[in-house]
Amino acid sequence: MKLSLAYSPCPNDTFAFHALVHNLIDTEGVTFSVELADVEQLNKRAATGQYDICKLSYSTFFSICDKYVMLRSGSALGYNNGPLFVSLDPDIRRENYPYLKIAIPGEGTTGALLLKTAFPECRKLTPVLFSDIESKLINREFDAGVLIHEGRFTYQEKGLHLIEDLGSYWQNTTGLPIPLGGIAVSRNLNSGLQNKINRILKRSIEFAFANPERSAEYVSENAQEMDPEVQKKHIGLFVNTYSLDIGEIGVSAVSELYKKAMELNPKIIRQDNLFIL
What we know:
By secondary structure, the protein is of the alpha/beta class. Helices cover 41% and strands 18% of the residues. The protein is built from twelve helices and eleven strands. The radius of gyration is 18 Å and the shape is globular.
């Protein structure tokens, strides 16, 4: 059986999926047609039901959870790893937030949702490819921006200043880890196949943890930031025990973010089961 699989070229995803797509583990008879794309592109394409299995921002997942259900393996969540709200100007005052031109890494990203939660007065938001946000801030095309992925490791050396760590804001207000993204499967697949996919992905992540050097070339050839040390920091921050199994704390964190999303968007339909059973 062949299934369509889509994930981002970011180091945490390529690290996690390397063994699966290179036939280094038992895939239980399942093969995959693989596509890599920016997470916001994946968010938009998944809304049409394009993939059997897809990396999604949790923010987008909440709006299409009638089409997809999350695997228990593969999520990126944890402490001190959230999006960063930054600017070239070190002295921006909060009363000016309604007038700032702000670059976000996509309307459907968790970074955008967290910004709206922390600073609802920020209104002039423009989606920008996540890897272009730093340069657009430096060129003063925007007053501020939300950085995700590798940007959190490089913004200071490029002269940008932190306004708010949106992950820390979430942790301080909820006491929970921040759910960034996860691996969703189509609800059209039967529960037996959904659980098989979860087993395969968990096996791939376990292989990656046990053999980190095996995925290094695959990670580097797809990464936006080519410094191997930055790639290692990225993986260490976003691939953790929650990635093996989200656990009850992780489920609670996702449920809390789901509530926030529904408060901001009443059109979101409530689903009782966000994760495979």
